[in-house]
Amino acid sequence: MEDSARRGKYRTVEESVSRRSMAAERRNSRTSRLSNLYLFAYNSLQAFGWSVSLFRILRSVVITKSVDGAYAAAGELICLLQAAAFLEVLHGALGIVPSGVLFPLMQWAGRTHFLLAIVRRISEIQESPSVFITFIAWCLSDVIRYLHYALNCLKCCPPWITYLRYTTFIVLYPLGIAPGEIWLMFQALPFIKKTGLYAGFFSSIPFNYYDFVRVLLLFYPFLWFKLYLHLFKQRRSKLGKRHEKKKN
Questions:
Q1: Whole-angstrom Cα distance, residue 175 to residue 164?
Q2: C-beta of residue 185 within 8 angstroms of C-beta of residue 118
Q3: How many whole angstroms separate alpha carbon 120 and alpha carbon 123?
Q4: CA distance between the termini of the chain
Q5: Cα separations (Å) of 60 from 3, 44, 136?
Q6: Cα–Cα distance, 135 to 53 (Å, whole number)
Q7: How would residue 31 be classed by pLDDT, with cut points 50, 70 and 90?
Q8: Cα Rg of the chain, angstroms
Q9: Average of per-residue pLDDT across 183-197
Q10: Burial 176-202 (b: 16+ CB within 10 A, else e)
Q11: % of the chain exceeding 90 in pLDDT
Q12: What is the pLDDT of residues 36-66, one digit of tens each?
């Protein structure tokens, strides 16, 4: 009798544990589906936004036969898209995606400072060819990147999209940085000094924004190279897996 009661008790406990485990799995599955749906929507909207930006810039070039109107054509939309990209830092921090926080934060902070703190505030440099170069490099890179992410959410990303995602950066990334961001910040220095840009913010600090940008320009290539090497590491990981699957 006692053995029978004990076995019945154990079965009851096991069934209870099994039910809790199944309930937890269902909750995790539901959360995973919601996260995946959110990521698909976010990446699809970003891909669409960058596609529209690229179209506006190219249309401006065709109509005006000049690259000077890149910011006027798509600058405000690109500012909005770049500001919204801070969500990607949160995605890494919350563990929604496996990217971590450091590299998304470095890329977001560098781009956002360049775009919102310098290009958007200094109208004299908005017609520079460097703006066109930067925007074209960003648009091409991000249309491919966000399209790749969105299709991966659906588990139907074609291999050629994956190849483009982890190959085009080899050219686009240096193009956007050197003749784009770095050269434009260098061109902005006289205007920053002349207008005393952000003087109020830096009034209680023993250096001004002009000095900050000059120091930033010294470190920019090293910070960029760290991100560049990280992208090559990702490329070896992602494209290496594809080659291994083909061999098998």
A1: 16
A2: yes
A3: 7
A4: 58
A5: 85, 24, 12
A6: 9
A7: confident
A8: 24
A9: 96
A10: bbeebbbbbbebbeebbeeeebbeeeb
A11: 78
A12: 999 999 999 999 999 999 999 999 999 999 9
